[in-house]
Design a protein that fits this description.
This protein is of the alpha/beta class and 300 residues long. It contains five helices and ten strands; from the N terminus they run ββββαβββαβββααα. The strands form three sheets. It has a six-stranded mixed sheet with strand order 3-6-5-7-4-10. The protein has a two-stranded antiparallel sheet with strand order 1-2. It has a two-stranded antiparallel ribbon with strand order 8-9. A hairpin with a 5-residue loop joins strand 5 and strand 6. Helix 2 packs across helix 5. The N terminus and C terminus are likely disordered.
Length: 300
């Protein structure tokens, strides 16, 4: 009798380790959407969880073969230079002492400050202090509403306190402050107003870095859930947004102005390029030749 050997092949799933978050960064339980619904001073911040967070998992994404979970891996984009609050001399006694955090940043909302465009970039720290006073004293937002601000020279400034590299919850887009970052262009960008190339590039570089920490494609789409019925969507409603959206996409406003809003497709494409993503189409008018501006002005 002749014996035959039968090879039995088994499929062994490969487990990829998740990347841990930077040391000292912890996940925070969801907090209420921040002002303009109400002042931060009346809130009790939630206790932070003790476990570090890894890359965000998109539960709506399809699962690959072998049943492994789909994980959005970070896109390691260099952090652009950011002028700190200490450098522009923010008075920390004016703000709410507690920062609030989301689990990560899934989208960016672009704003303009609706202030004059004829400023000297050396005077921007004074402008920031005036905005800071207005948003803490007059609007009772507890701090600057925006997470970051960018001037026409391409300098990026830290806005709301809590750590530029952390998912700080701001007060920039009513109903959609959770899990998003607000970037404000300093100036007013109504119809026909040129958007400085240095400003545009700095916004794209900042968005590419912040979204890259969670593996989010700047040229892609995300789903966000409204936390306030005064936004464009009823509270609890899930809506699809561009990963880089304008303020008007989430709230009834003209912000960030017609001119800057029209530049968002180019900003998305540039941010995706900075993340190393290949896009089959590049919106016309995208200005890739502009170099990153350095933050060399920290005060007056």
């Amino acid at each position: 009798m002749r014996l035959y050997r039968i090879a039995l092949w088994t499929t062994v799933p490969i487990v990829l380790p998740l990347l841990a978050a930077p040391a000292g960064v912890t996940a925070a339980r969801a907090v209420r959407d921040t002002t303009p619904e109400g002042p931060l001073s009346g809130w009790r911040p939630e206790a932070a969880a003790t476990q570090p967070v890894g890359p965000a998992v998109d539960a709506a994404a399809p699962f690959p073969a072998l049943g492994a979970a789909s994980v959005a891996l970070p896109r390691m984009v260099p952090r652009p230079a950011v002028v700190s609050r200490a450098q522009w001399r923010a008075d920390e006694t004016k703000r709410d002492p507690h920062a609030h955090y989301a689990g990560g940043v899934r989208a960016v909302f672009i704003h303009h400050t609706d202030t004059p465009n004829g400023y000297d970039c050396a005077d921007v720290p004074r402008t920031l202090r005036n905005l800071y006073t207005g948003q803490t004293r007059d609007q009772s937002w507890g701090d600057l509403g925006y997470n970051f601000l960018v001037d026409k020279c391409g300098t990026i400034y830290e806005g709301r306190a809590g750590g530029a590299d952390r998912p700080v919850v701001g007060s920039h887009t009513l109903g959609f402050n959770q899990g998003t970052t607000g970037i404000a262009a300093i100036g007013t960008f109504g119809p026909g107003t040129p958007v400085p190339a240095a400003m545009e590039h700095a916004i794209a570089a900042l968005a590419a870095w912040k979204l890259g920490l969670g593996g989010v494609d700047p040229a892609g789409k995300v789903r966000l859930t409204s936390t306030n019925g005064k936004s464009r969507y009823a509270k609890g409603t899930s809506a699809e947004f561009d990963a880089i959206s304008g303020h008007r996409d989430g709230f009834a406003t003209n912000c960030p102005g017609e001119a800057l809003f029209a530049r968002l497709p180019a900003i998305r494409a540039l941010a995706a390029s900075l993340q190393g993503r290949l896009s089959p189409r590049t919106p016309s008018g995208t200005r890739f030749a502009v170099s990153l501006g350095s933050a060399r002005r920290g005060g007056e």
